[in-house]
Design brief:
The relative contact order is 0.16. The protein is globular and about 55 Å long. The protein folds into two domains: about 50 residues, no CATH class; about 45 residues, no CATH class. The longest helix has 14 residues. A two-stranded parallel ribbon has the order 1-2. The mean pLDDT is about 80. It is mainly α. Strand 1, helix 5 and strand 2 form a beta-alpha-beta unit. It contains five helices and two strands, in the order ααααβαβ.
């Protein structure tokens, strides 16, 4: 599910600063919440180590999309659109948009 539904699956588990999911985890009522980003990182690393394939590239259509926004939301949108066959160009004014 993570491999197919999350375009930034590798990044989310490694650097996700959003711990709201952990605050909502029912397990916290018993002892402590599940560390969801760490679990996701472990699942993705295991999938890669056993050779589960990444999503297959789709045949490109004739449509081209430009995204003008910084950071993870732009890269996530670009990934989803590319998986759906769009040609995507991301414009980001920062020198190192991956940072």
């Amino acid at each position: 599910m993570i491999l197919s539904a999350n375009p930034l699956r590798r990044v989310c588990g490694a650097v996700c600063p959003d711990y709201f999911c952990q605050q909502a985890c029912a397990r916290r009522l018993f002892d402590r919440p599940i560390e969801i980003p760490a679990v996701q990182a472990a699942i993705v690393a295991r999938a890669q180590s056993i050779g589960l394939p990444a999503p297959r590239p789709v045949r490109r259509g004739g449509k081209h999309v430009a995204i003008s926004a910084p950071g993870p939301p732009a890269w996530g949108a670009a990934s989803v659109l590319a998986q759906r066959g769009y040609r995507v160009t991301v414009f980001d004014s920062r020198r190192n948009p991956a940072a």
